[in-house]
Amino acid sequence: MFDAKPKLGGLNEYGLATYKTAGDFAQQEIEWLLSIGGIEVHNGQQLGREFTLDSLLARFDAVFLGLGLVGVNALGIAEPQVSGLRDAVEFIAELRQAASPAEVPVGRSVVVIGGGMTAVDAAVQSRLLGAEQVTIVYRRGPEAMSASTVEQQWAQTHGVTIRHWAAPREVISEGGELRGMRFAATALKEGKLVETGEFFTLEADMVLRAIGQTYVAEPAGATIKLKGGRIATNEDGLTSHARVWAGGDCRHGGRDLTVEAVEHGKRSAVSIDLALRNPAAAAEPQQTLETQHG
Questions:
Q1: Looking at the chain, which residues constitute the CATH 3.50.50.60 domain(s)?
Q2: Which of these, 176, 172, 15, lies nearest to 81 by C-alpha position?
Q3: How far apart are CA 260 and CA 233, in angstroms?
Q4: With b meaning 16 or more CB within 10 Å and e meaning fewer, what string describes 224-247?
Q5: CA–CA separation, 48 and 57 (whole Å)
Q6: Domain 71-209: assigned CATH number
Q7: Neighbouring-strand partners of residue 216
Q8: Which of 113, 96, 95, 112 is CA-nearest to residue 104?
Q9: What are the residues facing 227 on neighbouring strands?
Q10: 48-57, 94-103, 153-162, 237-246: which range is least confident on average?
């Protein structure tokens, strides 16, 4: 196993809010998994930096890519270099790795931009750390938020305000310090999201971007075909390369759930085992991939 981070665990170790994952559960689970033996781990090793896919294929008979989504979407407006403007995933990861939550600074007035579970996690975590005012701002209505209704209610129960139908338009700063965000009111017109011409400003000394993550394709190289911005595979995880499988969030068609990533790993392991035992049988899934994804 090769992992770019100092610790194994991926999303469970770095991406979940601390109030959801007490007791160092991710590392306990990893210790249990590694206890079966025969698994060699190399941390601090990143694909495209310390090694390439070609170099792996030169050493190993099969490769599984569980790369996740490491790219963070930008706001789509000018983003000056000011303190307090940061990615929600980095904020959560810093909290997860801190010896004490008190080590991680949080603003007095926090604005979280986005509508998913990461936005809710960052907002609730900010409140729990002592932020006086926390507002989630989302460009569409509540029914369009990828965070579940339960998650939205959870945020509101913890004192988080959710403002719908607004898109970021300007980062307001003074002397390199964040002062607030200016938003444009939005609405649906003939099925398209448009700005209404109305604007409002929220005071903020901390703004967290939580508007989605993307798969970064460059480390795996051009030989791995994509669909919808993620790795195209057949149902067993086989990619366009006969010796490379993929699973988890980086794989096209998934639901971005840990339980599904585990299923991907299991099914890919079975497929890899079949391919190594019977190379002739492994050619059939590749034909299926080409049929499914063209």
A1: 2-70+213-293, 71-209
A2: 176
A3: 15
A4: bbbeeebbbbbebbbbbbebbbbb
A5: 14
A6: 3.50.50.60
A7: none
A8: 95
A9: 230
A10: 94-103
Distance between CA atoms of residues 272 and 257, nearest Å? 22
Of 165, 212, 159, the C-alpha closest to 186 is: 165
pLDDT (tens digit per residue) in 49-93:
999 999 999 999 999 999 988 888 888 899 999 989 999 999 999
Tens digits of per-residue pLDDT, 152-191?
999 999 999 999 999 999 999 998 899 999 999 999 999 9
Query: Domain 2-70+213-293 maps to which CATH number in 3.40.640.10, 3.60.15.10, 3.40.50.2300, 3.50.50.60?
Result: 3.50.50.60
Per-residue pLDDT band at 286 (split at 50, 70, 90): very low
What does the DSSP assignment read for 202-237? EE-SEEEE-S-EE---GGG-TTS-EETTEE---TT-
3-state helix vs strand vs coil in the chain, percent to 5: 35, 25, 40
Cα gap 231→253, rounded to integer Å: 9
267 is written with which tokens? 């099914």
